[in-house]
Specification:
Layout (H helix, E strand, L loop, with lengths): L1 E4 L2 E6 L2 E2 L5 H16 L10 H31 L7 E4 L7 E5 L2 E9 L2 E8 L14 E11 L5 E5 L2 E2 L2 H16 L2
Antiparallel strand pairs: 1-2, 2-3, 4-5, 5-6, 6-7, 7-8, 8-9, 9-10
Helix pairs in contact: 2-3
Length: 182
Amino acid sequence: MSIAVGNVSVKASGGKFLMKNLEWVKDLVESERRMEETGIIDLSAIPDETRDLEAKTFEFLKRVKESFIEYASAFNNLKNSTVGGVKIYGISNTIADFMLFRNGYKLLFSVVSPGKIAMTFQTQATQFVPPVNMNHTATTEEVLEAQYGPFGEMTWTYRGTHVNPEYLVRYYLSRFVRESAK
């Protein structure tokens, strides 16, 4: 089966369309259009990797957040209790950062820089008066990093190993629930 998108023919395989991301094609067309209008060939019209990396970082984190929302909702519904549910909040003044919260325990997912996402566990201190020169919260940070492979393919890694987003969500939600249990 094939379908026409403008003048582009897209083939379907098993009900899924093979073309997912057309942004790079749009950039090619725009670059060629500028060249035709100005008559000047722009040899530096290479794709902007930084912009692409930033967009892919936000896109990846948004997909991870959607998965957390889906699985946290399932957890809360199956738990069938108003106490001890997992709550998910967006972080203000950010594009995609978010936080899981339960029983005073937090797990933050935040973009550190394009291609770098930090996962930070934070616990609230159990003491009312913290010791002098000590931070109120204990934190543990872990980092996902984007790596470009051959032909511009980007993968997410943890300590140099490829990450499957489904298993990432499963691991962190399970760990979060166990560590935040009272």
